[in-house]
Amino acid sequence: MQALEPTAEPRNAIAAVTHPNPYPYYARLVAEAPLAYDAQLGAWVAASAETVCALLNEPRLRVRPTAEPVPKALRGSAAGVIFRQLVRMNDGTAHSARRKVVEARTTAFNPPVDAAAARWAQRLLDGGGALDATRLDAFAVDLPVHALGTMLRLDEALLPQLSERVGALARAFAPGADEDDVDRGVRAAGALSAAFSHYENDPLGIENAIGLLFQARETTAGLLLNTLLALAHRRALHAAVMARRIAVREVVSEVVRYDPPVQNTRRFADEEVALGGHVLRAGDAVVLALAAANRDPAFNPEPERFDPARTNRRTLTFGDGAHACPGEIIAIAIATAGVRALLDRRLDLEALTRTVTYRPSLNLRIPSFTA
Ligand code: HEM
Which domains does the chain carry? Predict the structure, then answer.
């Protein structure tokens, strides 16, 4: 494995998300501060698997602050209307009713999404010129939208434009969005709602149909690109995958644990919650460092070892409890199809390691190769 350059430890669990190598820092949090208040962030940070699991399953913690179900900047806009309805952003009965429909739909997409993803991977790579960094970044986000868009019966001709709009909406919804992000997201929301009008009388609804694309786009792109990096750093593994001695899906599944695209999620205490000798008070926020928990030695033995054949792999990358991701199998299928197609085209993996940076984000770890 190629040595990572020595860099200073990240300042906190949010800066860790886009740090070149946050994992020694996460290991220290797991060992020394499994749950601690970070005054700089103004939030609790949970890092050990035990605390992260407990908090994901704690009903007094909510996905949104009670006083602000929709971020202030989105209120009264087309983007705010979508946000308010999302399964991801609701708790209690508003969540469970939507959740049943979403789960039934994502289950039905699997396994047909395998074939759709393989077909779109070929088509997207066939169009356009050389496979340079710009095309690779675009391919990674466009593939999930095209594969899932086909499952959602969207007009094929609209898919390239929809991918951009879903990206704009995701940026407007992301923690830390600025005014420009919100403006672009609001414009995108109107156009997306029109493209999804065939969901108006469908139990999934326009908002949660759009929600599937928005939950899938950047996250799955990150999984695909982090898998390329995992292979780029390991020549023997890359050779074994090229010789089909190790399946791409197994490598992707280990990347889910080892270098996940979703590094953390947040919760907000609705009432006082006591855990591990600490008390979270009503109104407190907590960052659940999913990526740190995956590397907890009490959760996965020898967590620093990258092993696609790992038995009893455990991960919190897709969450746990009531809000656990219903798209896990779909995401792994799409990332696998994308990586397979790129390897078949002999993508120069080594070159990727020379220009890698991470897109600015407070929770997603998505490499970009456009230096
Ligand atoms: C590698 C890719 C993905 C990762 C790492 C990921 C991760 C997550 C996580 C951590 C959550 C829970 C957040 C929380 O509890 O705070 C979540 C929720 C969700 N994800 Fe994913 N996801 C991925 C891909 C997808 C895909 C492909 C879909 C759609 C097909 C999807 C749909 C959803 C939905 C609808 C929710 C909300 C569920 C709920 O609140 O009940 N995700 N995802």
Answer: 15-359 (1.10.630.10)
